[in-house]
Write a structure and sequence with these properties.
- By secondary structure, the protein is mainly β.
- It has two domains: 214 residues, 6 Propeller (Neuraminidase), CATH 2.120.10.80; 253 residues, no CATH class.
- Helices cover 5% and strands 37% of the residues.
- The strands form eight sheets. An eight-stranded mixed β-sheet has the order 15-16-17-18-22-21-20-19, with no helix packed on it. Strands 28, 29, 30, 31, 33, 35 and 38 form a seven-stranded antiparallel β-sheet that branches. Strands 3-2-5-6 form a four-stranded antiparallel β-sheet, with no helix packed on it.
- The protein binds calcium ion (4 copies).
- The site of one calcium ion has 7 residues, from loops.
- One calcium ion binds next to loops.
């Protein structure tokens, strides 16, 4: 209510101080009854739970399925799980706006991808026995080592030379000897002979991966200038720069054919070439990902696969044994990015502390991989997300491997407040780790305090919807003072539902440098975000079904008054909440009707967005910052399901905090 007076005062100042009406809107007023009215049954959910049914009557049991969705032009990987029977059900949570899933069947032979529609909370997919993995005709030889590791070779203009492990999902680099002769922006691999080629000026060098020795393969560049794009296949180098492509005999270094490339959408600079397992040639450059569709006498035609230019400059590309496309970016600290061959959607999988100017992929022989199970948990290394941990095999992410969800709170409950939904903003990613039997062994929760746009001191907790006897230990919380009491297992005392208090005062972790707010007022210095990793260890492998719908029951509470809790609309208070506050001020909680933390107008005090949320600036109402929030709510969530996205006309940028 204090804020309201400030608003009136400012408004009066603006009105008297300006002759004309100001261009910018004045600060919003608090919402009052009747401002925003939503139907009682509307729950403000931005996500949906989907049950996926996988049928696979093939005889191969070394199978991993993984499920992804594409949203806002980004590929989001959600989960993977093993083939424990011919028909498997697994549930996951995705944005309401998502209407199809990509389901991949991974075997040692490769990946089969199917895209299936989501209908009424279900998605079904059937895999046929006939799939035989990667196309034949690839002359892959096994390495001389017994255990082969799929890897990328990276080079840069500073003579850096690296091998990047593709097997464990960590993309760990190993430094190799500095490039002899100088730095290079182009490399290629002749795997049959174990030779990594790279170009320095007019010389083409080779590195023998078995003897770790360098030598010069050819001394005369067959055409003038550098060739930033280089790849090798079946005795030929393919070299390219801008709209020129050359096929060069690797033995004689003579140009066999040259082509003019037609089909660049705009920029044709930078980039790289790579063949996939089917023999199709791809080209990455500053204007996106392309595929060659035809070769004539002296011209080659490409079509762009990515929907648009990427927000980074691609300088390197490699396609691995599983036909995954990896690219590196033109930065001092290059990003390694995986790009979908289907639609160009992408995810950053690793950022290095070195530059990558070119990449090429070493593709192991399938026969070398099929038997390796380093931790003996029954899942071969190739398919094991944790190849050296027998208790863990797969990950289930919410919202996704790369995505962060958002919880945004109003903290004046039971008073409605100013509705800027930034009084506390928490980013989250939940990871349920499964073992080889698809049972949960632990839950890891990455949390970030992104903003604290409030004078109140607030704590944050989460109730976990399983029996406490299944939890052995919780770690990662940072609770100071005596406002809350915790048991030795890390859970809060006096709760019938396991309750984790992550922190009991956001001010302990995120101190505003000026004013009372952190990261909500434009022009004030950014306050570093505080991150937590909560780990919930289970007493033994447990059914993951109750855990499929994070963030479960998150809430804030007043640091000085533990009983004053604020939960998501329709979510129950904990045992420590002060129920005397229900029904006071603007609150219309009616426990008998299972109605909690809703006003008479059914406005909530907290929202969960299964995506990064660009929250409103201080005292800007959410319905003024997001032009379709109201339409979404009034349609009971049927229209503008992606109201929080950045589609044209969705956002009123002057009212949205963009500093972090
Ligand atoms: Ca294993
Ligand atoms: Ca394992
Ligand atoms: Ca507020
Ligand atoms: Ca605020």
């Amino acid at each position: 209510m204090k804020d309201f007076k400030v608003v009136i005062l400012l408004f009066a100042l603006l009105a008297t101080g300006c002759i004309e009406k100001p261009e910018l809107d004045p600060l919003e007023e608090d919402i009052i009854e009747g401002d925003l009215v939503f139907a009682n049954e509307f729950n403000f959910k931005t996500s949906q739970e989907i049950q996926v049914n996988v049928s696979d009557f093939g005889s191969n049991t070394q199978v991993k399925y993984s499920i992804s969705y594409t949203f806002q032009n980004q590929l989001h990987k959600v989960l993977s799980f093993g083939k424990t029977s011919s028909e498997i059900r697994h549930s996951l949570v995705v944005p309401t706006a998502v209407s199809e899933l990509s389901i991949e069947k991974h075997t040692a032979d490769g990946i089969e991808l199917k895209t299936v529609p989501v209908q009424a909370g279900y998605a079904s997919v059937q895999f046929e026995e006939s799939f035989s993995g990667r196309a034949s005709g690839n002359n892959l030889t096994s390495s001389e080592n017994e255990t082969c590791q799929d890897r990328l070779y990276a080079v840069n203009g500073q003579r850096g030379f690296y091998s990047i492990d593709l097997t464990a999902g960590e993309y760990t680099p190993t430094a190799l000897p500095d490039l002899e002769g100088g730095g290079s922006i182009a490399n290629a691999l002749d795997q049959d002979n174990g030779l990594v080629y790279y170009n320095v000026g007019t010389n083409l060098y080779q590195f023998d991966v078995y003897t770790n020795t360098f030598s010069i393969a050819h001394t005369g560049n067959p055409f003038n200038g550098n060739y930033p794009r280089l790849t090798y296949k079946d005795g030929y180098f393919w070299m390219s720069n801008n709209n020129k492509l050359y096929k060069v005999d690797a033995a004689t270094n003579e140009v066999v054919n040259s082509y003019t490339i037609n089909g660049f959408v705009n920029n044709s600079s930078g980039g790289d070439l790579a063949f996939d397992s089917l023999g199709d040639l791809y080209l990455a450059c500053f204007s996106g990902l392309y595929k060659f569709t035809g070769f004539e006498e002296s011209t080659a035609t490409i079509i762009r696969i990515s929907a648009e230019n990427f927000p980074f400059q691609l300088t390197s590309m490699a396609i691995d044994r599983q036909d995954r496309i990896f690219v590196g970016t033109n930065d001092a600290n290059s990003n390694l990015i995986q790009i979908s061959k289907e639609d160009g959607s992408y995810q950053i999988v690793r950022t290095y502390d070195f530059k990558i100017n070119d990449l090429t992929a070493w593709r192991c022989d399938v026969a070398d991989l099929e038997q390796q199970d380093s931790d003996n948990d029954g899942v071969i290394d190739e398919l094991d997300d944790y190849p050296n941990d027998a208790d863990a095999a797969y990950d289930v992410y919410t919202p996704s491997e790369i995505g962060m969800g958002s919880l945004a709170f109003e903290d004046l409950w039971p008073v409605k407040g100013d509705y800027d939904f930034n009084d506390l903003v928490i980013g989250y990613r939940f990871v349920n780790v499964l073992n080889s039997n698809n049972l949960a062994v632990r839950t890891e929760i990455d949390l970030t305090i992104r903003a604290m746009g409030a004078g109140n001191h607030n704590g944050f907790g989460i109730q976990i919807p399983i029996d406490e006897s299944l939890i052995s230990q919780v770690s990662g919380y940072e609770v100071f003072g005596e406002a809350v009491s915790l048991k030795s297992n890390g859970l809060e005392e006096g709760q019938s539902v396991p309750t984790i208090i992550v922190f009991n005062d956001a001010y302990d972790h995120m101190r505003p440098t000026s004013g009372g707010f952190a990261n909500t007022v434009v022009g004030q210095p950014l306050v570093e975000e505080k991150t937590f990793r909560i780990v919930i260890n289970f007493t033994g492998p447990t059914d993951p079904a109750p855990l499929v719908n994070p963030p479960y029951n998150p809430f804030i509470f007043n640091s000085m008054d533990r009983g004053r809790e604020v939960h998501l609309s329709g979510h129950q208070p904990t045992d420590l909440a002060d129920t005397n506050l229900f029904g006071t001020e603007d609150d219309n909680t009616l426990p008998g009707l299972d109605r909690y933390y809703q006003s008479v107008d059914n406005t909530p005090w907290a929202i969960n967005i299964i995506h990064t949320f660009r929250y409103p600036t201080e005292k800007s109402r959410i319905d003024k910052a997001y032009n379709y929030f109201k339409h979404w709510g009034e349609s009971n969530g049927l229209s503008y399901t992606d109201w929080y996205g950045d589609a044209n006309g969705y956002r009123n940028l002057s009212k949205i905090y963009q500093g972090n």
